Amino acid sequence: MTDPAEIPRRAPTSGVGLGFALGLVLLFAAWAVPVHLRSLAPALLVQSGADTPTLADLGEARLDAAQPGPAALLLAGARAAGVAPAQTAPFDNALRAFGKREPALVPWGGEDPFLIPLTRQAAARAATARGESTPVLQFFVTAEARAALRDFLGGSRNAAVRDTLELLKLKNTGRFVPAGLPGGQTFEALGLLVALLQQGEHLPPSLAKLWREETRAALARGELGAPLQALLMDLLALGRRLDWRQLTAVVGTVETRATWSELGRLARAGGEPFALTLAAALVDNSAERVIAFRLRHPDDPDADLRLALSNGQGAVRLLLARGVPVNRQNAPAPGPLVGLALRHPEWALVLRFALCAAGAYLVLRALDRSLRVAPPAPSPANEDPGLFHARSGVLALVATGAFILATEPYLGRSAPPRIEGLTLAMPVLGNLADPATLKTLVPSFAMDLHSLLAIALFGALQISMYLVCLAKIRSLDALALPPLVKLRLMENEENLFDGGLYLGIGGTATALVFQVLGLIEPNLLAAYSSNLLGISCVALIKIRHVRPFKTRLILAAQDAIVVGGDPGKAR
User: Fold this and answer.
1) In terms of CB atoms within 10 Å, which end of the chain has fewer, N or C?
2) Sign of CA dihedral 463, 469, 472, 478
3) pLDDT digits (tens, 9 = 90+) for 308-340
4) Contact 263, 238 (CB under 8 A)
């Protein structure tokens, strides 16, 4: 007859379901807190942009100041950001009405007394008749326009203007043709444009100092020099895209050479990135922060700028002030959590991780209590409850770390270094006869959605194998057999307990085969994660469950031998 004390007992299940459900609720709440380590939640942009001026509002303010040029840049930025036409239609109509009311201001983008020598030229009258915004350098095409501007600036008392005019007398001008020679119109026009910007004090102090120092260094050397040539080439790109007021509005927000150079590069490329950058610079009144954001996050800064611009001035300023990309993995967040993340991001981050740790602890504890094999009777081999709680806490911390890695795609990502000038690429594993096969792969710590889904699939398979192994241990423990027989049956199930490792190796091999066949995109991270999860699963099964259960069976058999019984007949 079996001793009642030796009948296998199940772990208590009261409260397990409630703890599991509460843990899931806490995990969802942690996911919903809109705060991240190195990224920004879209909900923060939406709330910070509420009740702040939109691009249309800022554009209408520019129109009230008689500056249709900058207003047109804001309208172009709104369109590039995907703002609904119904929202921009009134602003567009107001801009058209202003052009009909003040046609003489449209080509220049606004009024400026220093433009008088150019407004008297035939090109200016033709542009006024067309009623279109005109790139400023188009007014420097004729020799008469340049001569009139040179005479106007020749009497300037500004030392920087006089130095710039002296620069036009240099003969060693590098990539430019010297002024006064056939083909030298470009260099002369750029020099006059710089002098006009200096005369009108449109350059901010730091940028004005840079131009002045480079100009004086070039005059001292008697040659233009590479740094000044680069500045002029960027000005050429901007002057061919922007009218006068647009140029002065944008230049007034530039302070460093790096920002000036990047603006020139964007102007040469054109398109939506240039429109978004200029609109954000006017909204934030700083091209420095916009360019810094683009350089720190070169993967897809335009998508983040679109989202911010479409939500208003407050959203743009928040995005540029934080200087981090937008993380679109958040669940819908309630207003109080969004307000907390905006006012106190550090406390919101603590709350997010605390909720995650607590939820993971409750879920893991509920799973452990419902699936673990309870010992048949009190014995020295029983687990200490304190050790049980400590183990669940450690697993909860590990789960919190996994939660951080899964919800922080930009945590380990850094901007690739920008390489200017001539570069030499060394292709690897490519066909030299076919340039299309030559690719340069840049290492990255970022994980895309497909990688996360693959890892989640492999993790689900390992969890299933884990549950199967636990079920097998529980079924063997419930059998009314002697301890030695149960021990032999456990040894017979070693292949099952190693199944997680086989499953992990199989997943890795399958993923690699699919990548070679071209059925899926190459991704070694997703492939080898299957093997890593398999090793972790087998280690957890054997160390956490199989080894303690075998130890208990061995001790039970030893107790039977000590009392003089037959271990082969012990129950």
Assistant:
1) N
2) negative
3) 999 999 999 999 998 888 887 766 778 888 888
4) yes
Are 260 and 267 in contact by the 8 Å Cβ rule? The answer is no
Q: 3-class SS at 223?
A: strand
Task: Give the residue from 545, 512, 546 showing the smallest Cα distance to 528.
Answer: 512
The two structure tokens encoding residue 286: 């700083």
CB atoms within 10 A of CB 503: 21
| Residues whose CB is less than 8 angstroms from the CB of residue 348 and which lie 6 or more positions away in sequence, other chains included | 33, 34, 35, 337, 340, 341
Structure tokens at 463: 């969890």
Q: What is the pLDDT of residues 526-537, one digit of tens each?
A: 677 788 888 888
Nearest CA-CA partner of 102 in 135, 148, 63: 63
Distance of alpha carbon 242 from alpha carbon 107, whole angstroms: 10
CB proximity list for 311: less than 8 A, separation 6 or greater: 45, 46, 48, 49, 50
Q: How far apart are CA 45 and CA 316, in angstroms?
A: 8
H/E stretch holding 321 reads: helix 313-322
Sign for the CA dihedral angle at 178, 179, 183, 185 comes to positive
User: 22: buried, middle or exposed (CB in 10 Å: 19+, 13-18, 0-12)?
Assistant: middle
The Cα 75–Cα 54 span in angstroms is 11
- Give the three-state DSSP class for 172: strand
Enter the DSSP assignment of 136.
G
Q: Where are the beta strands (DSSP E) in 200-271?
A: none
3-class secondary structure, 248: helix
The CA distance from 9 to 453, in Å, is 39
